[in-house]
Amino acid sequence: MKASETFVKTFKTISKDETAISAQYLLRAGYIHKEMAGVYTFLPLGLKVIENIKDIIREELNAIHCQEISMTALQNPEPWQKSGRWADQDIDIWFKTELSAGGEVGLAPTHEEPITNMMKKYISSYKDLPAYVYQFQTKFRNELRAKSGILRGREFLMKDLYSFSADDASHMKFYHQVEEAYRTIFDRLNIGDSTYQTFASGGIFAKYSHEFQTVLPIGEDTIYYNQDKSVVLNEEVLNDEVLNEMGVTRDELESTKSAEVANIFTLKYKYSKPLDLNFINQDGEREYVTMGCYGIGVSRLMGVIAEKFADDKGLIWPESIAPFRYYLIAIGDQATNIANDLHSQHPDLFYFDDTDNRPGAKFADADLIGLPYRAVISDKTLQDNKIEITNRLTGQTSLLTIDDFVAKL
Amino acid sequence: MKASETFVKTFKTISKDETAISAQYLLRAGYIHKEMAGVYTFLPLGLKVIENIKDIIREELNAIHCQEISMTALQNPEPWQKSGRWADQDIDIWFKTELSAGGEVGLAPTHEEPITNMMKKYISSYKDLPAYVYQFQTKFRNELRAKSGILRGREFLMKDLYSFSADDASHMKFYHQVEEAYRTIFDRLNIGDSTYQTFASGGIFAKYSHEFQTVLPIGEDTIYYNQDKSVVLNEEVLNDEVLNEMGVTRDELESTKSAEVANIFTLKYKYSKPLDLNFINQDGEREYVTMGCYGIGVSRLMGVIAEKFADDKGLIWPESIAPFRYYLIAIGDQATNIANDLHSQHPDLFYFDDTDNRPGAKFADADLIGLPYRAVISDKTLQDNKIEITNRLTGQTSLLTIDDFVAKL
After folding, report:
1. pLDDT tens digit string along B230-255?
2. What ipTM was assigned to the predicted interfaces of this complex?
3. Residue B323 CB: number of other CB atoms within 10 A?
4. Could A155 and B74 be called an inter-chain contact, meaning their C-beta atoms sit closer than 8 Å?
5. Do A140 and B73 touch (CB under 8 A)?
6. B146 plus B234 within the same structural domain
7. A17, A378, B243, B388: which one has the fewest Cβ atoms less than 10 Å from its Cβ?
């Protein structure tokens, strides 16, 4: 992409109502635009980051035989009434609206009910199990307060996966496959080392659920951990019984703020029973389907990664999800010709700042936008036919001959 | 994809409330699932068709320097109040809801207002123009009646593109580029020959808009055309003044039912004036930005193409958007081994029906699901080491040696 061809500009300042550093930088650098509190448009660079995160998640889920679909925002109340999650006193974050033709509908805050309902069409025998179905979908949650930019939105993008199994053993086998896939995903997103699989409260049918919590000073959650004993607990399960079971004392735990980026839940019959999703087992008996659900907050992840790696100059994207690999700056006519060639041969690798901004402004924008590498060609580097590559994270600079650089692309 | 690995099944019959043949087949073949009238989930095969249509549109729009973003469903009333499109008596298809924190919000039926509002941040000088920005976005329209499956939905997928230009001349230049891009898109979707660019009513700032209408017996529109004079009119502009201008008489026109798959509109100042999107021109004077908007109904297109090519046995997808190219059937153990090899080497080309259904049921499903080619390997074809390829559209069958077939993949 050439900077001169995009409508987006960077800004030195923005309105003061954004407190999270990630939100400030994402707005200033032109990744997102705020429609209202908790509701953000993704601009070209931001959409590329989102699509890159989705691609990584999609690859890892497809590898464990999950199938992608796309469900709807508008929700028929009926299945939600059956599960007891329609009334505003039960679920307080619904957006509800009315059909012209009559009848109330809601905007999906999650999709357990409609997918359980849909699977009644497709599951009737043990031969139809297991089934693993996921989507990337916009979720709507009518939060009283929405802050921290895309870390907690009223409209946000989630990956939600649902598993349908015949029994506990096959359910748990898949549950562990998802744990593994999630660890791979967070490794690929460069937050594997700071993302902990955490015990959290489980609900009716399971003692625990698991959350994936990324250490983050502005996170909304608090986790308690003991690295020697590999124990990580959400605050909500920090009680004597659980500590005893885990073999740790309260004194042995350290705490940190964190952001929940994913969760996995054994639902068992929580939705299959009220919605009557059942199958005939190998003995000819009718049983409820054992379900699990597995979420990843896609737009939140973008915010967490932005927040986590930012420094005092701007964003720093991991290579795996950066919108482009190189922020390309040319100083002088000959350098500009070479930069134009590089860009036209590899438009997906280079964000070429071909504006008439002064070099200092371009260097500042390179730091703000935070691509993994800055690539500078100038009359000075061209004396040795070289290009200067600077790592945005480490600040390390190296000079490569242009031929060597091109050969490595 | 292997049929045994997908949760989706085909059905011989469905409930009788779907009248469109495309909706019946799409539901029976497992491309879509009905959540409620006008609201459909896309299943794995359906999502692939949608993504293939999006890829074609994206390629052609990127080629004319359009930039992709993703806006939001939730809408702040303010810009819509300024343009006079918020009140229910002005726009009767709004879904509206309330924020917990107080205040009404709407679900976007289209995005002229929020994008005009957003571009105020990015456009201030003639140097910032032109800008071409598009998205694939779910739109919400509170239709009193929703019928014909995905041909007219309450929640549906649209590509909407907006252009921002300095003057009429540069606006019209881009308008013609979009006309050309749209013709290429419809050619690639195999409906170029039956899709007419049609004069329709233009609104305040332009005499005409243009629609792209695909001839379709169950279409909601009627177009009037004279092929010799290359005149195609929407019913809404069929009056003496227009006929006179076009140089045709009413008697020279034939009519047909059609479905609107796209439209292009000169908006000029319709939104830039009330929302005060202006710029400083080369003479230092302040002017309103000249706008255009350009829509394509993505999910509707899927319905139109399904409806248009279907026969009495099922769907028939054009190769450019089919979810897979071959419906692979193996009869006998040796054939199954070869089919497994073919599928594992080209999982994106083959939908391998490895179920234990009888061959007759597999042939019927191949016709219903409507991939461009059926590929059959059996003990009989293997006597000459061959595979039987049948074109779903023409019914033509040819026998190829497996080596020749593999070489062509």
Report:
1. 899 999 899 999 999 999 999 999 99
2. 0.96
3. 21
4. yes
5. yes
6. yes
7. A17
